[in-house]
Inverse folding.
């Protein structure tokens, strides 16, 4: 018996040695690979790793070190890619689909939903969720957007004076109302009740997530678990998860008497369901579950929470920055206003100029300033081979401000996107691209078009001398808000 115990101990020690040796070999390959690219010293990272300094610093690194450069974040090596051809390699790949460690900060909230999952699980999730974004589903959401934007108009009318106003909080609450009703099928009335427990919990988890993503210390689980942020996160997540689970039960009960399947929902006949039976993203998942798809309630919860995170923060950023840019470009605002008047009630149709305005805003202020992927197998990037364990970071913000691709990159020119046929397909990636592109981009474009068209019909946006201080978090935000003045149109 003692002999068996000794043998097992020796076996464990032997296996640990093998594992340690293999880790050392892998890390040695990463170190060797790092010498193939230039990059700033670690001390410079420590000096510049303040939230408002990161983007200017990375732009300087691009100018100093070229289109590919590396930065060590502790033991993690990140390769920054800023050229369309390199970005194409990453985003078009069926192999490089694992998200980097940056996304671990959202996993306590989102679990392994579409944003964070990888491999066969991600492929299955993507296939299951695609029907939820069918055009006939999106058409139903116009009523929700109209109702919520009516409240937004009333709220903004109260602050339409000569005084500057930070429009970001107003837009965020509006977007939260829209996503609650379209994703979960419930009204949260965030705009009317911004202090409710659920609304405050969404705000709190976003703050905690962004704070942790920017802290070299809090990103380490050991230190995070010892901090007060862990306790705050646990309390907040209980509110959010319990509410999503409650809604799942309610919507399942509501669907019991609705004898409808996925194919019927996706047909033109689905538009005849009526307002009272309008389907939410959650309903599509519950119908799929009823039809025998491999979907547990916890999996559904994760996907709904993913919709909540991705569907309100990104859209809020884009709408707010569009209003800011239009306030500084009156000529472009007037053209967009005239188009908004001409297409009132027809926002599903192509509104070429307003779409160009939105696209140009997402070029200057991409809602997601970077996409990072973790290399699981060796992959060739240009003339070099990246070993497993390296992170490849697509620098959307830097790419979109490349003067060789977009002359006068800091100037707002919507006409760039009125004729962009000759543009490299990976020179503009606000919704990512390739197999892991944003599944909700049509939903986001519809919401942005309808919201901005309605706001343009009610208000003139006037400039304020307060340039946004950009924060390159998971979502691009402004540290000093998004300041404009609003004037009611007669």
């Amino acid at each position: 018996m003692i002999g068996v115990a000794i043998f097992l101990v020796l076996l464990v020690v032997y296996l640990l040695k093998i594992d340690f040796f293999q880790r050392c070999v892998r890390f040695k390959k990463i170190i060797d690979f790092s010498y193939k690219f230039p990059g700033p010293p670690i001390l410079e990272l420590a000096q510049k790793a303040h939230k408002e300094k990161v983007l200017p610093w990375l732009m300087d690194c691009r100018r100093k070190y070229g289109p590919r450069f590396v930065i060590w974040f502790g033991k993690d090596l990140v390769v920054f890619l800023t050229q369309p051809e390199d970005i194409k390699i990453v985003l078009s790949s069926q192999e490089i689909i694992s998200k980097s460690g940056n996304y671990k900060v959202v996993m306590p909230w989102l679990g392994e939903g579409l944003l964070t999952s990888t491999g066969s699980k991600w492929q299955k999730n993507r296939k299951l969720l695609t029907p939820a974004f069918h055009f006939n589903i999106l058409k139903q959401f116009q009523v929700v957007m109209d109702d919520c934007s009516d409240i937004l108009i009333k709220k903004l009318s109260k602050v339409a004076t000569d005084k500057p106003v930070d429009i970001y909080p107003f837009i965020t609450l509006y977007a939260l109302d829209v996503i609650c009703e379209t994703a979960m099928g419930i009204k949260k009335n965030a705009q009317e009740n911004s202090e409710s427990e659920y609304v405050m919990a969404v705000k709190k988890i976003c703050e905690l997530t962004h704070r942790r993503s920017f802290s070299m210390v809090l990103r380490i689980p050991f230190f995070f678990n010892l901090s007060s942020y862990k306790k705050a996160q646990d309390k907040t997540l209980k509110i959010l998860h319990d509410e999503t689970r409650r809604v799942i039960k309610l919507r399942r009960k509501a669907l019991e008497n609705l004898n409808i399947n996925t194919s019927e929902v996706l047909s033109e006949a689905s538009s005849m369901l009526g307002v009272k039976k309008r389907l939410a993203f959650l309903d599509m998942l519950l119908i799929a579950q009823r039809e025998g798809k491999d979907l547990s309630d916890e999996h559904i919860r994760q996907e709904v929470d993913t919709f909540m995170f991705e569907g309100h923060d990104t859209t809020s950023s884009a709408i707010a920055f569009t209003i800011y840019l239009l306030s500084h470009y009156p000529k472009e605002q007037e053209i967009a206003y005239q188009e908004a008047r001409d297409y009132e009630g027809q926002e599903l149709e192509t509104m070429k100029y307003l779409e160009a305005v939105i696209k140009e805003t997402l070029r200057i202020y991409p809602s997601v300033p970077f996409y990072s992927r973790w290399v699981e197998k060796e992959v060739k990037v240009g003339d070099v081979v990246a070993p497993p364990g390296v992170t490849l970071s697509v620098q959307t913000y830097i790419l979109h401000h490349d003067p060789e691709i977009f002359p006068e990159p800091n100037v707002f020119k919507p006409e760039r996107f009125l004729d962009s046929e000759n543009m490299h397909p990976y020179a503009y990636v606000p919704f990512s691209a390739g197999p892991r592109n944003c599944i909700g981009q049509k939903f986001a474009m519809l919401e942005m078009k309808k919201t901005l068209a309605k706001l343009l019909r009610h208000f003139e946006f006037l400039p304020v001398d307060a340039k946004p201080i950009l924060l390159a978090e998971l979502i691009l935000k402004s540290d000093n808000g998004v300041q404009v003045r609003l004037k009611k149109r007669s």
Observations:
- The chain has a mean pLDDT of 86.
- Residues 347 and 395 are 32 Å apart (CA to CA).
- The first strand starts at residue 68 and ends at 73.
